[in-house]
Write a structure and sequence with these properties.
Elements: E1 5-6, E2 28-29, E3 37-39, E4 43-49, E5 52-56, E6 70-74, H1 76-94, E7 104-110, H2 115-127, E8 143-147, H3 152-162, E9 169-171, E10 188-190, H4 195-208, E11 213-219, H5 222-235, E12 241-248, H6 254-266, E13 271-275, H7 278-290, E14 297-300, H8 316-319, E15 323-327, H9 335-340, H10 351-361, H11 388-391, H12 398-417, H13 439-447, E16 450-453, E17 456-459, E18 469-477, E19 483-492, E20 501-503, E21 530-534, E22 543-547, E23 552-553, E24 563-564, E25 569-571, E26 578-580, E27 582-584, H14 590-615, H15 620-623, H16 627-643, H17 653-687, H18 700-724, E28 728-732, E29 739-745, H19 749-772, H20 782-806, H21 810-841, H22 848-852
Parallel strand pairs: 4-7, 4-8, 8-9, 9-10, 11-12, 11-13, 13-14, 14-15, 27-29
Antiparallel strand pairs: 1-2, 3-7, 5-6, 15-18, 16-17, 18-19, 19-20, 21-22, 23-24, 25-26, 28-29
Organism: Oncorhynchus tshawytscha (Chinook salmon)
Membrane topology: Multi-pass membrane protein
Subcellular location: Cell membrane
Length: about 850
């Protein structure tokens, strides 16, 4: 501490909340710290303001007594706040309604926007101005309350010093949420909203404008720390990510500042949220502008969004379009006139007034050795509009808070002094003594306070906080080229959740003097039809857009996952909506028509051959080997061609049962006829041997019995199939998930393969018998053609099995039809083409001698 009491050699100092000491020793100040302004009164309140915004630390090597922190960078804005406190006190002293017959006094100190200096100021308030004024050593504290501080870091220090003495403190600009902890800061009040509301408002602003990738710069103090933590808490689950977190050193360091600026330049985040005070932002922005960086959208906290220091034209190219939350503005009657009364002629010995003139006019009203580089001036210069840092009284915000804080103390003290005996709030329903008011007694009335000023109600909740309300400020170029703070909306924390933020978007000008909203995202939004895939090791806002898998959709922007379509639906080509699946079956499309034509041509060709045979039924080549069998084969082949037509079209219960049974029975009939013919051929040549009368067992009647019996077996298998588990129409959604394939389920797989197996058995038996008879004599050995026909038939149906199993959708049915038609054409051409050739083209060979191989 810079300020200590020195007691006599045998004494030591112990300060208690009552500050009562049982000793006659005198208090002597080791080090003085004079106030900027002071006025006596019946009740004294303190004021602490950051009249300077920069500090210069002394050289501490302990070879001599260290000097105090040197304050640099006079702040006319904070000086206006201090004058507002003086104005409020003078108004109250002149009022007949508020504190009549009592006078308020004040002591105003400079904190230099630095906690250490704020600490010195607090101790100086408690100690008094010298030995004659050191009433703190006996009786109640002459300091009833303190107006201050601006920065949260300074308020924390000052509040802790005042706490043992139960001296209430009302801050006009300290918004850190940490100060709402009543256990740590039981005597702290404020007329500025808690930062919990500001970070909530900022989070809503970032979400509203879809700024999902933002940087955060903060000051190295509790205000910046707690504001950052609160913002991160509010941003959880909103889709907004913080690209970087940088901290401006409390004692400004240009090298560190340039590192932060380089991070801002290189980052893809185009929006930067800043929780900082005017003091550290001033040199930081100077270095930022020196780097000539533009295009960044600044989002300012209430601590600097209305700082008049930044209204000059030099800031516009870099800070124009800044948007932020300013504390509530109000009206202070007479402030402008009062500020104009402050000049070096009226306060010739006040160094703060001298510095005000140097800051506003760049001249020194009282030349001294330290100001030889500054030209002299009279000190009577007129304060003009361009001195807005000091003279901006059109819409006071922080100054209005100072004004409210002073009146809050005055109203509380007024209520305390007008306490009715026997109805007081203290022990035994007592009241405070008007000549010996203790600070803790004043705090009780502060906590219960409620009054109106400029149409606004002022009160404090249990945490000492006031009603949360912010104006939304946008920095725009004024007509004179300077920056203007335009009110474009508000945030009212008293409203229902989600309705607090009201913005007039048409009035906003964004960074770069653009009407177009700045875009700040790590990754562009994923369009409907895709989903977000987070990149490993990166924040959630950095992602890749992955198209939805087939069968899944996303119909919203930035979908986290794709939704699977219902069973009978499929995703469209864009993956944005579910549409009914394509119902597929072998219809009369190009493929169906082609197969139909082939089948009809085959049937017509077979009927034509039948007609030729009927016409030439008396010729040897037709009569040989039982012409009746040939007619049966042609008839069954016609049915085989026609049964292929039953496989084309939408499956129904009847068509499913009929197509398989008709196919199996007709083919069984056909192969049975061929088997009978093969047996006849083989028996005919065997019967030519002496003593062999086998032909009597293979007459026409026996041939019919063979055909009927072989066909009957297949009929019985089909009957059992239809009774046990018949084929039925079904929707196949497994083979092709994007389609609904209407097909005929075979019902019983065993019955289906038994039907095919039986046809295959008949075909193999025919092939074996025909193969055995292939070398029998004669120019026209029909066994050779049966062998070829069965060879083709078996080859087709053997290749059919893997093709059938592996073909998707309607191609499964097409493969089955192809097998039917191919095998039918194979039988037709192998068995009857040679005969037709002789009948139609070589009639001279259509003789018994030629067929038997006897040459003339």
């Amino acid at each position: 501490m810079s300020l200590l009491f020195l007691w006599s050699l045998s004494s030591s100092l112990t300060l208690s909340p009552s500050s009562t000491l049982a000793t006659d020793s005198e208090c002597v100040l080791l080090s003085g710290f004079d106030p900027g302004f002071v006025a006596d009164g019946d009740f004294v309140i303190g004021g602490i303001f950051p009249l300077h915004y920069n500090q210069e630390m002394p050289d501490v090597n302990y070879t001599y007594q260290p000097t105090a922190v040197r304050c640099n960078g006079f702040d006319p804005r904070a000086f206006r706040w201090a004058q507002t406190m003086r104005l409020a006190v003078e108004e109250i002293n002149q009022s007949e309604q508020l504190l009549p017959n009592h006078m308020l006094g004040y002591k105003i100190f400079d904190s230099c926007a630095y906690p250490l200096t704020g600490q010195r100021a607090a101790l100086a308030m408690l100690n008094g101005l010298g030995q004659a004024h050191t009433h703190v050593c006996s009786g109640a504290s002459p300091l009833l309350a303190v107006i201050g501080e601006s920065g949260s870091a300074q308020s924390i220090v000052v509040s802790r010093i005042l706490q043992p003495f139960k001296i209430p403190m009302i801050s006009y600009f300290s918004s850190c949420a940490c100060l709402g902890d009543r256990r740590k800061y039981p005597t702290f009040f404020r007329v500025i909203p808690n930062d919990d509301y500001q970070v909530k408002a900022m989070a809503q602003l970032l979400v509203r404008y879809d700024w999902r990738w933002v940087g955060v710069v903060r000051g190295d103090h509790e205000y910046g720390h707690f504001a950052l933590q609160g913002l991160l808490r509010e941003l959880k689950g909103t889709g907004v990510c913080v690209a970087y977190q940088e901290m401006i050193p409390l004692l400004y360091n240009q090298q560190r500042a340039l590192e932060i600026i380089e991070v801002m330049r290189s980052s893809t985040a185009r929006v930067v949220v800043v929780f900082s005070a005017e003091g550290e932002m001033t040199p930081f922005l100077k270095d930022y502008m020196a780097q000539n960086i533009t295009g960044i959208q600044w989002v300012a906290s209430e601590a600097w969004v209305t700082a008049s220091l930044f209204t000059t034209s030099e800031y516009f190219p870099y800070l124009g379009g800044t948007i932020g939350f300013g504390i509530r503005q109000g009206q202070i009657p007479g402030l402008r006139d009062y500020l104009q009364t402050v000049n070096p002629r009226r306060y010739p010995s006040n160094p703060l007034v001298q510095q005000l003139w140097e800051a506003l006019y760049g001249c020194s009203p009282s030349p001294s050795p330290s100001s030889t580089l500054i030209p002299p001036c009279s000190g009577q210069e007129t304060l003009l509009e361009q001195h807005s840092a000091y003279m901006n009284t059109s819409s006071p915000r922080v100054a209005y808070n100072v004004y409210k804080a002073v009146y809050a103390i005055a109203h509380s003290l007024h209520n305390l002094l007008h306490c009715q005996a026997g109805a007081g709030p203290f022990h035994n329903r007592s009241c405070a003594h008007s000549t010996n008011v203790h600070p803790w007694q004043l705090q009780h009335y502060l906590q219960e306070l409620a009054f109106y000023i400029s149409g606004e109600e002022v009160n404090f909740d249990l945490k000492g906080d006031s009603i949360p309300y912010y104006d939304i400020i946008n920095w725009q170029r004024g007509s004179g080229g300077n920056m203007e703070f335009i009110n474009v909306g508000l945030f009212d924390g008293a409203k229902a959740s989600g309705k607090e933020l009201v913005i007039q978007e048409e009035k906003i000008v964004w960074a770069g003097h653009q009407s177009k909203l700045v875009v700040s995202v790590c990754s562009a939004s994923c369009a409907p039809g895709s989903r977000k895939a987070v990149r490993r090791g990166e924040p959630l806002c950095c992602f890749d857009c992955v198209p939805c898998d087939s069968g899944k959709i996303s119909n919203q922007t930035d979908s986290i996952d794709c939704t699977e379509c219902p069973e009978d639906y499929w995703s469209n080509a864009d993956g944005t909506m579910c549409i009914p699946k394509v119902v597929e079956f072998l219809s009369h499309d190009a493929m169906g028509i082609a197969l139909t034509v082939i089948a009809v041509v085959g049937a017509c060709l077979t009927v034509s051959i039948l007609a030729v045979f009927l016409h030439h039924r008396t010729t040897p080549i037709v009569r040989v080997n039982n012409s009746e069998l040939s007619f049966f084969i042609l008839l069954s082949l016609t049915l085989c061609f026609l049964c292929a037509l039953m496989f084309i079209g939408e499956p129904t219960s009847w068509s499913c049962m009929l197509r398989h049974t008709a196919f199996s029975i007709t083919f069984s009939l056909c192969i049975s006829c061929i088997l009978s013919k093969t047996l006849v051929v083989l028996a005919a040549f065997t019967a030519a041997r002496p003593g062999n009368n086998i032909m009597k067992w293979l007459g026409p009647k026996q041939q019919r019995v063979i055909i009927f019996s072989c066909t009957l077996v297949q009929v019985l298998i089909c009957a059992a199939w239809l009774m046990a588990a018949p084929p039925y129409p079904s929707k196949n959604i497994q083979d092709q998930r994007s389609k609904i394939i209407l097909e005929c389920s075979v019902g019983s797989q065993l019955a289906f393969w038994c039907v095919l197996g039986y046809i295959g058995l008949l075909a193999c038996l025919c092939f074996i018998l025909a193969f055995l008879a292939r070398k029998l004599p004669g120019n026209f050995n029909e066994a050779k053609f049966i062998t070829f026909s069965m060879l083709i038939f078996c080859a087709v149906w053997i290749s059919f099995i893997p093709a059938y199993v592996s073909s998707p959708g309607k191609y499964t049915v097409a493969v089955e039809i192809f097998a039917i038609l191919a095998s039918s054409y194979g039988l037709l051409f192998c068995l009857f083409a040679p005969k037709c050739y002789i009948i139609l083209l070589k009639p001279e060979k259509n003789t018994k001698q030629h067929l038997m191989g006897n040459k003339k």
